[in-house]
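## Example record

The block below lists the input lines for one assembly entry, exactly as stored, with component labels intact.
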Amino acid sequence: MKCSRDGDFSEGQLQRFGNIEINPSAAVLNYGQGLFEGLKAYRKQDGNILLFRPEENAIRMRNGAERMCMPAPSVEQFVEAVKATVLANKRWIPPPGKGSLYIRPLLMGTGPVLGLAPAPDYTFLIYVSPVGNYFKEGVAPINLIVENDFHRATPGGTGGVKTIGNYAAVLKAQAAAKAKGYSDVLYLDCLYKRYIEEVSSCNIFIVKDNVISTPAIKGTILPGITRKSIIEVARSHGFKVEERNVTVDELVEADEVFCTGTAVVLSPVGSITYKSQRVSYGEDGFGPVSKQLYTSLTSLQMGLCEDTMSWTVQLS
Ligand code: PMP
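Predicted structure tokens for the full assembly:
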């Protein structure tokens, strides 16, 4: 779909996956004026397809677009485009239990600019790919390292929106962590280097004495849709959930730590290393709280239980 700066997005069309043409002076290439989203489609046992809260992705993209001086498709346009793309790629959706179809909506300033300014024209597109587990460990525990030198977000910056530049900012620290055998990086706030924020592509939770805590959303953390869903699921199971500042020291005392995101779903954290000190959680992966939440969330997403939350959108 195409759009000028103040206009409406045109009717979209399906086209075969392949390279796209782009002006070398497009704002997205020169100034990073781009946003993306990520969501998944699961195939149910009865053959129907489920999307998980796609309107939440549409709303997040619209909020991000406001921050990035971009027009964005309406919630309805976004959801309809996702549905049409998924239906056209039905054959790529893995069978139940074998993975999902990852859906990547992309909004870019594709009009030309030379001096720094928002683009005159925009493109919204969606591509898809079948996926399995995000971490090579699968749903086994992941090992994180706390990053002390690099930050992914600063107050007043763009950390709270899903803009492409945020991910360029994490590549170096993530590559260094992987080279040392860690699964990913856990970032600290950049003012005090005391509060945990999030992992390169997922949110983080700790469990202590059955109370679940996660860093509050304050502009430097992506408001994850899985995070929001897990908070609601946990509260519906009677857990106390706190959104607050979580200090790096609390990781030592935590009973369980887990990460959430569309790609990682809910991954238990097996260990966290901070300033050469390693804290481990359990031996065989999931603690009881994260296991319960994982089962509830994935049952909803995969259509294995009744959708009492009305979160899924069924396509056939
Ligand atoms: N934080 C970051 C930086 C992410 O890229 C993601 C993935 N979108 C998340 C958190 C989790 O968000 P969601 O649950 O909406 O996928």
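The chain has a mean pLDDT of 94. The chain has two domains: 2-131, 142-302.
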